[in-house]
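Researcher: For the record, we're logging two predictions in this thread. I'll number them. Prediction 1 follows.
Model: Prediction 1, sequence and structure:
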Amino acid sequence: MTAATFRALHHDRAAGDPLVLPGPWDAASARVLADAGFPALATPSAGVAASLGYEDGATPPDEMFAAVARIVRAVSVPVSADVEGGYGLAPAELVGRLLEAGVVGCNLEDSEGHATLKDPQRHADWLAEVRAEAGDALVINARVDTFLVGAGDPADAVERARLYVAAGADCVYPILAPLEVLPVLRDGIAGPINMAAGPDRESVAELGRRGATRITFGPGMQRYAMGAIGDLAAGLRA
C-alpha cells in the first residue's frame, strides 16, 4: 500500500466507522496484529521505548528508526510511525529517515519534552517544510498537545489543528481530549481526527460515534500485553 492509498483510508468513512490502527511495539507484535487482518498499523513511541528499555521520550533516534524499520520489514501491511517531535532533525533528514525505514506515515507532536507547547505558527511552518520535503509520500498525523501539557482549552486545540491542516497535515491528533469535547473538535476541524482508545471494543465504538475518524492506542496494547504476561508469571510463580 502506498501513502496515497493509506491516506484514502482516512476519507469518506461512514459515521461510526473509524479507521482502526493497532500499535505494535516490535516485529513479533506487528505480525500478530497484521495477521488479525488490520489494513495498516501505527507504532506508539512509548510502547517502542518500553520494549527497548527506555522511558517515553528518551529513546535515541537511531534506535527508534531501527525499531520502526524492523516492524516494517516484519509485515506486508503499511506502517505509520510515531517519531515524537522529530528528534531535532531538519525536515529533509527527518523525511529521509522515515522513508528509509519504509513507513507511509508519521506522528509529529507540538510539545517539547511532554512539558511545554510549541508556538503554533512556528510549528505549522515546520510542518509545512516536512510536507514540502515528503510530497505525497507520507501521511502526516499532527499531534495537538493542548490537553496533555496545555490548559486544555478546546478553542486552542481547534486553532492549532486548523494551522496544522493548512500547513499540510493529513490528520490531527488532539491527544487526551476528553470524550465530551470531541464533538466540539469535530465541528471546528476540517479533515480527519485521530483519537486514542483503550484496548477494547467499547472504547473504539464510542469514539467512532463521537466523530473520531482514526483510532490508535498509544502504548495501551503494549501495556495490556505486559499485564497479561505479568498475570501469567504470577500464576506460574504461585
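Researcher: Logged. Prediction 2.
Model: Prediction 2, sequence and structure:
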Amino acid sequence: MTIAMLIPAAGVGSRMQADRPKQYLTLANQTVLEHTAGKLLALPQTSRLFLALSPHDPYFDALPLAADARVCRVNGGAERADSVLAGLDAIDAALFPWTLVHDAARPLVQLSDIQQLIEICLSSGLGGILASPVRDTMKRGHVPGHGPSLVEHTVERRQLWHALTPQLFPTILLRDALRRALAAGVAITDEASAMEWAGHPVQLIAGRADNLKITQPEDLALARFYLEQA
C-alpha cells in the first residue's frame, strides 16, 4: 500500500536563535531538512513526499531536494497543525489512504523504527505514533508570583511516554479530525492529539530515544554528534 509522506516545515524556529529557520541549518554538509527528507525518501513505500513550506521560503529552491520528482511542495500555515492540514488537503486519499507525518527537525529517526510503525499500523488498521517511555522522574510545577517554579508534586511515570514522530494515520480520518479540532479551537500539538480529541484510538509504538527534535541550539550539537557516530 502506498503511503503519503508529509513533512510540515513552514516554521521559523525562533528558539534556535539562528539567522534562518532550523530546518535549513547545516548538519554534516546537508541541511536538517535534507537529512530528514532523505530518510523518508529511502523508504520503499515512498512515491510522493509532501513538504508544507512557508509561501515566502527563500531557501528551499536552492536545494537539490527541490528537483526531486517525488517531492511536492505545498504552502504551509502559521502553525504546525495548519501546515499539516494544508498538506493533507493536497493529498488524494484514494491514492494514498494512509499519511505518515514527520517533523522536519527530527533528522535522526531510524528507518527500522519507521518500518515497524508502518507494519503495526497497516496490519491492525489503527493509527499510531512512535514514542519512547519516560525515564526521568517527572515533576508537576506551578509558578508563584515571582521567582522560579515550585514543585507541586511528583508525577507517576510508569504510563508516561514521550510522543515522537513519525505519526501514521488513515488520511481521511486524520484530515477530518484535524479540521474539526482546529475549527473548535482545540490546541493541537501533534496529529495524535487531534485523533484523540476525535475519539480515535492511537497506538504507541516504542522507538529509539535518540530520535531527538532539534529545538534549542544545544540540540544541533547533539544531533551532529550522533550523525558522526553513525
